[in-house]
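G., the chain you wanted modeled:
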Amino acid sequence: MSFRPKLLQASVAGLLLATALTPQSAVAGQTEAPCDIYARGGTPCVGAFSTTRALFASYNGPLYKVQRTSDNATRDIGLDSTGGYANAAVQDEFCAGTACKVLVLYDHTSRHNDLTIAGPGAGGPQNRPADAAALPITVAGHKAYGLYMPPLTGYRRASTVTTGTARAGQPESVYEVASGTNASDECCSDFGNVETEVKDTGQGHMDTLNISYLNATNSADPGPWVEADLEDGVFQGGTGLWAPNRGNPSKFVTAVLRNNGQNTFSLKGGNSQTGALNTWYEGALPPGNYTPMQQEGSIVLGVGGDNSNRATGTFFEGAMTSGYASNATDNAVQANILAQHYDGTSTGGGPGELITGPGGKCIDVYGNDIGGNGAPVDLWECRPMAADMHWISSDWYGGTLRTIGRCLAADGTAIKVADCSAAGNQQWYPQADGTVKNPASGKCLTAAGTSDGSALQLADCTAGPAQQFVVPVLIHHRGSCVDVSGRDEGGNNAVVQLWSCQTLKGAGPLAKDQHWRYDVADHTIRTLGRCLTANGTADGTRLLLNDCTGSGGQQWTPQADGTMRNSQSGKCMSAVGAGTANGTPLQILSCGQVSTDRFQLN
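Predicted structure as C-alpha cells:
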C-alpha cells in the first residue's frame, strides 16, 4: 500500500461515484441487517458487535467508545442514521492531533453484552485497547474504521453478566467479517463463547471462530484458515488439519461457525467482497470431550478463553446467535455483507515483514494493496499497516519473497511482482554485506533513488548505498536458531538463547523473536525493537536483548569463518557448554575456543 497522489485522486473520484450510485435506502440506513436476517431465520442474535455499521436496521445506539491520549477524554462513536453506518467524522474530529484507543465495543442487541478490555488470565497478561485509527476502510461508500488487534490486544465479557449466550451444549452460530491478509500463527485471535474463569477448563468449553495459520504444518494451501477453537483444539474441520478446507486469504473474509452443541458443527468461509460462502466442513464434532459441548457463556474478541493473547487479527463486524442457523440464513447474511461493498487500502499489514532499503524506505508494490501480475516494485515511506509492504519468505530468505499472493521477480533488469513459479528470477539471497542477490543473474537488488516511488532494478553487485537492504533473517546454529526467551515479548534484559527453528513455509514466521534484522550500517542485530547485547567483555558474558544504544556491546560483525564477532570485546558469539538444546543461553567467548561457534544469517 502506497498513497500516491494520482491513485488517491482516483480513489476519491471512485468514492464520489460510489456515493452517487448508492441507493437512497443505504444512505439513510439499511432496510435489513445481519441480525434481522438471523431473527427471521429463527436464530436471533444474542451479541452483535461492529465498528462499521448497525447490525439491526432499527439500531441507533453507539458502536464503540474511544479515549484520546491527550487528555483521556472519551467519546461514543455512533451511526450517521438509524440502521446506518459508522460516523467516522466524529472520531476524526475528536481524535484530531492525538491518538485514540477503543475502550468498549457495544452490543447492538437489547441484552447489552458490551465488550471491554480483557484482563489478565492463565494464558497471558493484561490486554491493551486497540488503536482506533489503525484500519481506515469504506463500507457502502462510507468511511469507517476496522479493529486491528496485534498481540496483547483483546476484549471480553464474563458469563456472570452475559445473558442469552449458549451454555452447556446449547446450539449457537457465530459469524464475523475479518481479514485474511492480517492473520498470524500464534494463539489466539478468537471471537465467540468462552469460559467464565479466565483459564482453560477443558475440551468443549469454548466455541469460537479463529482465522489464522494454526495447524498449518503440512497443509497443501497457504492459508489462513477459518477454524473453530473449541478449547484444547483448533480445528479446520473434523480434525485439526482438514484438507478440504482450502483457506481464505482475501482482504475481507466472512467466517461462519455453527454448533448444535451435541454432536455436529459447521465451518464456512468466503470473500466478503465477492462470491458465495464455501462450506469447509459440516459433520461430527471432533473426537474427545466435545460431545456434548460445555460452553460457559462468556464472550471474547481477539484473545483465547484463557487469555492467550499472542495472536494478531482484525475485526469489522460479527454476531453470536441462539440456535443453529440454516444454510439459507448463512447465504442471506453473506449476500447482505456483499451489498456493503467493504473496501480499503489496508487490512492491517501482515503476514510477513517489512524490508527496509536506501533512505530508510520500504520495498513496496505500486498501487494500494492491489499487486496485479507485473506490477512494478519500488521504495516508499514505510507503512506498518500496508499489506503490500509485508513480505513472506520461503526457506527463510534463501528463496522467494511473496506479498499479497505474488512473488518478487526480475523481468530483465526491472523488478516486479509476478505469479509465483520458484523460477531463478524469483530467488533472492541476502548477503552479509547488506545486498540482496539474485543467483540466476549474479546481480543485486538496486534502488534507483531514495524518494517515494524510486524503482527497484537489478544491477552489478557493488555493496554501495543503493544496494543496502535490511532483511529479517534467522540466525542458525547447528540446527537451532537464535531466539529470545518468552513468547515474542522481548522485554529489556530478556535472555537470548537457542531454540528449535519455528518455520512455517509459505505462511511467515511462527516466532517473531527469531526474526532478526542485521544492519550493515551500525552492525546491530535487532528483533522486537531491541538489540542483541553483550553487557561486558569477559568470557562467559551472557547475551541479552536490550534497548538499542549504539554501544560497542551491541555491534556485531560476521566473519569469513562463520563466527560472529562482538566489536566491544573482540570476542565471538557462543552457545554455553557448546549446547544445542532448547533454552541453551548464548554468551561471548574468546574466538577460536570452540570450533563449532558458527552462526549463519539466512
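Residues 234 and 240 are 6 Å apart (CA to CA).

Shout if anything looks off.
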